[in-house]
């Protein structure tokens, strides 16, 4: 797989970090028109349901991605550090995780839980994009696998806007169903901090730094593609055969 991205010459870790932050400012999916509609209260309940349903496939695939990342490292300390991400999303004995909290959101939106968990009704582009991400972390270098997670650097700001905007604009949203996003306000910075330090320490050549930046570009493309598909299907009205239809959800 070739990633078409040509960054500036990156002769230091500081130059790489500056480029990573520039990538986030220009390409992170908070800039997507679908998110603007979502956060400004301009979507119908059915369109919000479609977003939550499709996003569940991404959320439920994150532990698969993280298990693959762990499998790439013989270094025990890295495996131990990365392992908490599995519990963050899968939960542990007697403690809910991010997937549970996302299901609280879909429950609150009136979606049948078994339907959500089945993966039926998601858009083909959602499946292709998410599966491509899981494949990426298993097929690229371990450095690139960790680097692809660095979109977490930009996540807290979008979570803050999402919480405020959705609570303000939608009468079918309440504090309880926004629990996933509140928890990520503390989890994402911690995860991003480790990943950023890792790539700064281990990307020691211009070529490796370029690969780190390209991995982040790839991940922003994965996130953007999911929103493109949602916009095409549920805003412009081109819902593919077999995909979720809000009018049938009740």
Query: Strand portion, in percent?
Result: under 5%
The termini sit apart by 42 Å
| Weakly predicted, low-confidence segments | none
Q: If you consult CATH, what is the topology?
A: Heme Oxygenase, Chain A
Number of domains: 1
Strand count, sense and barrel status of the largest sheet are: none
What is the overall shape?
globular
What is the overall number of helices? 11
**Relative helix content:** 55-70%
The first-level CATH class is given as Mainly Alpha
The assigned structural class equals mainly alpha
What is the fourth-level CATH superfamily? Heme oxygenase-like
* CATH architecture designation: Up-down Bundle
Radius of gyration over all CA atoms, rounded? 18 Å
Count of individual beta strands: 0
Q: Residue-averaged pLDDT, rounded?
A: 92
Question: What is the N-to-C order of secondary-structure elements (H for helix, E for strand)?
Answer: HHHHHHHHHHH
Description of the structure:
The chain has eleven helices and no strands. Helix 1 packs antiparallel against helix 10 (about 180-200), helix 1 (about 15-25) packs parallel to helix 11 (about 205-235) and helix 3 (about 45-70) runs antiparallel to helix 5. It starts with 12 loop residues before the first helix and ends in a 15-residue tail after the last helix. By secondary structure, the protein is mainly alpha-helical. It has a single domain (about 15-245), classed as Heme oxygenase-like (Heme Oxygenase, Chain A, Up-down Bundle).
